[in-house]
Every structure is written in C-alpha cells, then in structure tokens.
C-alpha cells in the first residue's frame, strides 16, 4: 500500500506540469527571440534604418551571393534589410501589444457592463458587438485614417477595436455564468458591491480564459496592422514596420525577393507561434481546469 | 416581535415557453407565513422542489416575493442590491449547501473570512486578523489553516469556513440551506454541534432548511413542513413527532427508521407532483390515503388548532383517528 503511494506521487506531479510538445517549445523560443529583439532593437541594429548606400542597392543576402556587410541584403535605396527588420519587429510588436491590451480592457469592460446591468445596457452592447463583427475592419480603418490622418495613437485605438467584440462576448458569457455560481452569490450575499465582486473575485477566476482570448487575438492584430501598412496607411516612412516593408518590397518581388520575404517570414512565424501557443494554452485550461 | 416575519409570501416562476407558446407559471411558494424570534430555530422540511430553498432566499431578500411581504426586525426588506439591502447583510447571513461552490477557490480561507469585515468596515487591519483567527478557532479550525486554499481542505472544514465567514459580521439571523446534506454522516454531527453551540452563544435566530426531519426535529424550536410551496403543518418538534396531524407529516415522521416499530409504515405512493401542474383542491390528495371528493375540490388552507399548531387538512388526524 505504502509502496503504491510513493510510486504514484511523482506521476501526479508529472500530470500537473504537462509536457510541452516540440512545436510549442519551438514557438515559445521564437516568441522569446522576437521579444528580445524588440527590447534590444536599439543595440542590435547594425545600421540605422535610414542610412542609405546607393552604391550597394538591392544586394542579395549572404547565402545568395551577398556580403557579410549586409547579412540579409539591402533594399532599393541601399538600406540594410536586417536593421530595418529589427526595428520593424519592435514597432509592429509594440503596436500589436498595446492594441491587444487596449482591446481586451475595453472588451472586458463592455462584457462586464452587459453582464452586470443586463436589460437595455446589455442590448446596446450586443448591438455594438454585432455591428463591430459585421463591419469589415479594413474599410473602417481606411475611412478613419483617411479622415483623421495617420497617427500612432489613432492606429493603436483602431487596432484595439479590431477584436474587442470577441473579448466582450467571452467576458459577458463568463461573467453571466459566474454570477450564477455559488462563490459569486456568496460574496454578493455578504453585502459586497460590484467593485469588489468583479475586481477581486470574477477577474482572477476568468483571467486564464481572457489571457487565451488575448493570445489568439494578438496575431490577428499583427496581421491587420501589416495589412494597413501594406496599403500605405498605418506606420509611414521613414519609420518602418513589418507590413510597411512588405508593401514597399513588393515592387522588387521578381528582382530582389529578399526585401519582401524577410519581413513576410517574420510575420508568418510570429503569428503562427502565438496561435500555436494560444491553442495549446486553451487546451491545457480545458483539460486541467476542474 | 419576531426578528424575521414572512407574511403570506408567494413566488411564481415562469417556466418554458417558446416563440408561440406562453410560459407555464410555476408556483414555487403560495401564501407562506412564517416567523422566527431572536435566539430561536425554525426548521423547514419537505421534499425536493417543495419551495424550501425559495423560502430561504426570500427570507434573506435575495429574491423579492411576488405577493406578501418580508419584515426583518419590523421593517420591510429593501430591494435586492440597494445600499440598504447591502448594509442589512451584516445582520443576516446564509450558510450554503455546497461549501466548495460557495468559496472562491483562488483565495485563501482567511482572506475570505475577512471579507465581510472589510465590506462592512468592521475593525482595522490588525483587529481583523485577530478576529479571523478567533472565528477559525470558534468553528474548530486552527488559525494556521487560514492560509489554506479551499481545495486543500476537507468538506467538513470547508463548511466550517463558510460558517466562520457567515458569523464574522455577528449577524442576528442565519439561514442554513441544507448546511450538512453534502457532508458525511460522521462530519454532519460535528458541524451541527458547532452550529448549535454558536447559535446559543450568539443568541442567533436561525432558519434551518433541510430534508432531514430527524435532524431538524432534534435542533429546532419549531418545525414547518412544506409541500408543493405551502406550509401543511407547523408545530413544535415534540408535537409533530408524537402526533403528526397532516397525513404528509405522518408519512415523513414514520419514514424515520425506528427499530422498535411494530405497526406497518404508511407509505407514500406516486411521484412528487410537478409544481407547474398543481393538483386541484388539496395538492396532496393524489398521494393521500384518506383523500375524499371534498379534498379533490377544495383547498383546506392552513388553520390554527387549539394546541397552537397549524394544519392544512380536511381530515385532521386528531379529529378523525385512523
């Protein structure tokens, strides 16, 4: 009997910390690398992003006949692709991070308001959610940017609106479910006001789901930002972003594909990694939640 | 003056209903009048779906009755969620059936017991910690167990935590909704003893809701037997046990196992009826051995008898002995 008990202990411990599949480990590593690059962009970039070398225009990357002076080659103005890529990663990730955070906060607030007030407030929130879901984001963004001009703040807010409706739905559903649960009823019964109820009890209990929801929205925000930059909106030259690089590189697709491919690969790998990680997180929460 | 008084309270829920179909009204409670005095225990018994829990929720003002009124300390119950209602929580508390469900699994037990103190601004930071330790000791837990998360405690310990939290603000009324039915029999006795000890010590008025007639009979000062949203008999446990006057009470009392019983046990036939489809006349008549044509037509209504108890039956067992 005692032998059984001692044997089963390490097994339980292994169950509680599930093994990470190789793809998830790789995805996490890539995300860590991207975060490190974004944080240290200032020290990592070999050249500044506007430094032109017209004598060394459209140089291929190292393994395709280029020189080590420009490991990823140069673009049509002789600017170093690696340096521009590093700065773009920082710009795009910061933008996506701020926008996602703002989107989750706004969505959670709307969802909570709907679940708390019910009645007309809930109906209004639901209509807003449906409007947001039905409106093509690019058209909304195009018109807003065309009217108000390009600015970093406007861009962050626009991208935050991309996806808030999903967080709002998730939070509304979870809050309504939690309101029917014993612990929420118990705390309300103690005389707690809505502030304590939601901040101290509801949010910590639904945070895991909200984090997954945010993780799944993050790559889409990166793609949306890239799409806007590609269309010439969003981040404007001389500043650079991943979508911006793809957009300006497409004219040289046949002669100098590296100008476009380098940022494209980064976009694909980053969004894929975050999606994989989000899916995995969600599965983990599903199976070990209760 | 009773601390809590329910005056002919009714509560109707709507059930089902679709696009072209009107919802069916379900009479969870109809014309229920009860009162609890300070320091007294009123037991409410009945089978599932008879409206016991609804009575508890209405008594606490968690739900508003459709008809009748609820008086606490002589004043009508403020609407749920209002500031007055929230302030009143300090004086009335609830002990839940499912202690794990009633606790936040992400918070330490001590933090949860301290919540009523913080909410009602009782004491300071330092005195609260001492009060939590005192409460933990009062319910038979060690103060160091306050650091534990609810999942690390056993069922009985969790229920004691719920009890400690309910008593933190020194309430005058405690509603216990099946407080021990989720616990092992051996633990039930412990928790009930703690509950009773504290009830006497704090002079608590208590509404004790349970389906366990024997348990209610041993602790309550007065017992109300409910059937389909109505009180069918009310009296002291001694009266009810010695001479049940409503046929339903009689069946309930005789269902308590008694090794020395010699007479055959009266049995209840049929399923508990659907509250959405209430039988005509006396709601108990389809399952009653002595039902007559009169019972099928007219509802007897609860009437007070000479010995101070109230019975709702045309064929009062005392008057027409079987």
UniProtKB/TrEMBL annotation, chain A:
It is found in: Cell membrane. Residues 89-278 form the ABC transmembrane type-1 domain. One of its GO terms (biological process) is transmembrane transport. Coiled coil: none annotated. SUPFAM superfamilies: MetI-like. It is a multi-pass membrane protein. The chain crosses the membrane at residues 20-44, 93-117, 137-162, 206-235, 255-281. Keywords: Cell membrane, Membrane, Transmembrane, Transmembrane helix, Transport. It comes from the Bacteria. InterPro entries: BP-dependent_transpt_permease, MetI-like, MetI-like_sf. GO terms for cellular component: plasma membrane. Belongs to the binding-protein-dependent transport system permease family. This is ABC transporter permease subunit. It comes from Pseudooceanicola albus.
UniProtKB/TrEMBL annotation, chain B:
InterPro entries: AAA+_ATPase, ABC_transp_ATP-bind, ABC_transporter-like_ATP-bd, ABC_transporter-like_CS, Oligopep_ABC_C, P-loop_NTPase. It comes from the Bacteria. One of its GO terms (molecular function) is ATP hydrolysis activity. It is a peripheral membrane protein. Keywords: ATP-binding, Nucleotide-binding, Transport. Its main location: membrane. CDD domains: ABC_NikE_OppD_transporters. It holds the Pfam family ABC_tran. Belongs to the ABC transporter superfamily. This is ATP-binding cassette domain-containing protein. It comes from Pseudooceanicola albus.
